[in-house]
Write a structure and sequence with these properties.
Blueprint lengths: L1 H14 L24 H53 L2 E2 L7 E2 L3 H7 L2 H33 L6 H13 L2 H11 L5 H8 L16 H25 L4 H9 L4 H12 L1 H17 L2 H6 L11 H11 L3 H32 L1
Antiparallel strand pairs: 1-2
Helix pairs in contact: 1-2, 4-8, 4-11, 5-8, 8-11, 11-14, 13-14
Length: 349
Amino acid sequence: MSHLRNLWQPWTRRIKLDSKDRLPYAVQDEGVGGLPTPSPSSQTQAAGRVAAIDQRFWRALGRWGQPYLFILPGFLIYLVFVLIPIISTVRYSFFDWTGFSEATFIGFDNYIELANDRDFWRAIGNNAFFVVFYTIIPIIFALFLTSLMTRGKLRGMAFFRTGLFIPQVMSMVVVGIIWRWLFTIDGPINQLLTLVGLESWVRPWLGDFTFARYAVGAVGSWVQYGLAMVLFLAGIQAIDEELYDAAKVFGANALQQFRYVTLPGLRQQIIVAFVLTFIAALRVFDLVFVLTRGGPGKETWVTSYMVYEETFRFNRAGYGAAIAVTMALVIVTVSAVVFWVQSRDDRNA
C-alpha cells in the first residue's frame, strides 16, 4: 500500500497545489467567471510536469511487474498442462462419461461405487505392499551405501555414484523390458539359479501367483534407491566433521557414529526421500504395465493401472477420474501429515 501511495502521490500534488508549488499565472484577460488564463509558458511547464509523472509511473510499474513477466511463461505451461487437467479430472469424477459421449451429472455415485469396489481395495492393498519395496527398502539400502562411500576416500567415487544412480534416470519402459527378459523362464536369473544348484527355485517369476508381487517390488527397489542415495550423499556433506571426531574421542564405533551422528544429520533428507518414494509407490503404473499388466490374475493390480483399465478399456472415464482423485487426496494427505510432524518436531527442537 505504501508503494501505491508513493506512486500516486504526484497526481495528488497536481490536484492540490500548495502555495509554494502553485503555477504562475499571467493575467492577460478575464476568462469565464473572471478566472485568469494561464500564459503559454505556464502551459508548457504543466505539460512537462505531467510527462515526467507519466514516465515515473511507467518506470515504477515496470520495476514492480518485471519479476512476474519472467515467471509468466512457466506459469502458463503449468496452468495448461497441470492445473486445468486437475480441475477437469475433479469435475468429470462427478459425471457418467465414456470419454466420447456427452457427460451426465451423477453426483457422488462414482465415489459410492468406488467404496464398494473390491478390485479398488485390492489395488490399494497392492500399493501398500509396494510401499515396502519402493520406500522402506530403498531408504535402508541407500543409507547403507552412503555410509560405505563416505567413511573414507575411495578411488573412483564419481564412477560409483554415477553407476548407482543410473536406474533412477532410465526410462521405466526400458527398465521393465530389461527385467521382463531377466525374469523369463529361460532368463539369466533362472539360469544362475540352475548353475548354483537351486533348480527348485526356477520359476516364471512374473507369472507366479506367489512371487509376482515380489518380483515387481524388487524392480521398484532397484529403481528408487538411487534417488535416496543422492539425497543422502548431499546431506551428509553438510554434517560437521567435528561431530565425528568428538564421537571417536568418546570411543564410538562406526555403528554408533552412524546412529548418533549420521542419522540425525540426515533427518531432513530421509523425510524428503520418504515422501518422494511413497508417492512413487502409489503412482506406480509403467512397471506394472510392462511387466505383468496387473497379473497373474490381479496379484499386481494397482490403482494407476485400474485408472487405465476403467478409462481406456471399459470406457468409464468418469469412474477412472474418481479413482485418480481419490488417490491424489491420499497422496496429499499423507504428505501433509509427514511435513506437519516434521515442522512440529523442528519447533519442539
